[in-house]
Design a protein that fits this description.
single chain; alpha+beta; Histidine-containing Protein, Chain: A; 4 helices; 4 strands
Length: 121
């Protein structure tokens, strides 16, 4: 039996729903059998299409409604909602959250193992 469920989410990423988070949303949406749509101010787009998601031009603070219709609709919205709740961070990745604190991660020199820095010797 197909069910339709919806959930409101807020884009909390300081850079909005730009290419990387839109790609994460589209990839997650494609994992599910249900039809996934994202509703913006006056626009309804296919949640499985990164290009459609980018047309929403959703900035930080934008409220969106996720809608899913299909046999796995609830599970799909739980997974997609989690992406928004965790600011599009998966596992140990940080999604430019350091920009909020005014610091940026140090760049690693080419060929230098992670976690090591030049001690000046």
């Amino acid at each position: 039996m197909n069910q339709t469920v919806s959930r409101e989410v807020i884009v909390a990423n300081v850079e909005g729903l730009h290419a990387r988070p839109a790609d994460l949303v589209a990839r997650e949406a494609r994992r599910w059998q249900s039809r996934i749509e994202v509703v913006g101010k006056a626009q309804r787009v296919d949640g499985k299409s990164i290009l459609d998601l980018l047309t929403l031009a959703a900035e930080a603070g934008t409220r969106l409604v996720l809608e899913a219709t299909g046999p796995d609709a609830s599970e799909a919205l739980d997974a997609l909602g989690s992406l928004f709740e965790h600011n599009f961070t998966i596992g140990n990745e940080s999604n430019n959250n350091t920009v909020l604190s005014g610091t940026k991660p140090a760049k690693q020199a080419p060929g230098e193992p992670a976690g090591e820095t030049d001690s000046g010797h």
